[in-house]
Amino acid sequence: MINGGKVKVSVIICALDKKKILSDTIPSVKRSPFVDELIIVEGLKPIGYSRDVGWRKARNELICFIDDDEVVPEGWIERLAEEFNQPEIGAVSSTLKPLNPNKINELECTLQNRTLKGSTLHARFVRKRALEDIGGYEHTIGGETVYAALKLIQRGWKIKIVDYPLLHKMHENGHAWILNIYGTGRIRADELREHKELLTHYKKALGSPIRGLELSILYKEPLFFMFYPLRCWLYLLGAIRGTYTSGKTTL
Question: Which of 58, 137, 143, 171 could join 52 via S-S bond, C-beta 3.0 to 4.6 A?
């Protein structure tokens, strides 16, 4: 029970084209008895702006963002909503699981989940008062949930990561993965520079072979020795390329 009453959650789906929302996404959201409101924000870019518009339209205290390529497992919303019984919790997020499992997606999810559990810097199931406290999401291409999480922590809010995976449609093959990682770095180049993150990614790429070896040993998966450095360098090269083409080359 949140605030002593029936739990009500506003779910916001951000999509550039609502026709491309996965067929199972909306039914998976609607089957939760906690969902009181469903808002689809269509055609707005960047993603940070889309999220910011969405939560300001919501009528409930608990707001959950689901992307158009995600499916909510049964009981997921109820499980994460339980954490808001603690008044100091500003946001709750979960681990991820590939909707289309293959070796690349499994490795990618392992890395993302490790990062989530280690930093808790993610804010997509959020208390409305907490968002009001930080002024909402930054209007960025990506990373808006991380920047929001950092602000929440600075304002004294706590964030929890629940190991109850959200299903996410990921890369179809290795080629798609390469294009996605490189492309993400490229389109976020200016934001990485402005948030002083580009140098961090440069250092990460330099140290990636050692880190890849550590991950290989930790997870008993030799592929991490190649996968992790490749991921780091693809992202960095994309970011450098994006910075160069925009006329800003400072790391």
Answer: 137
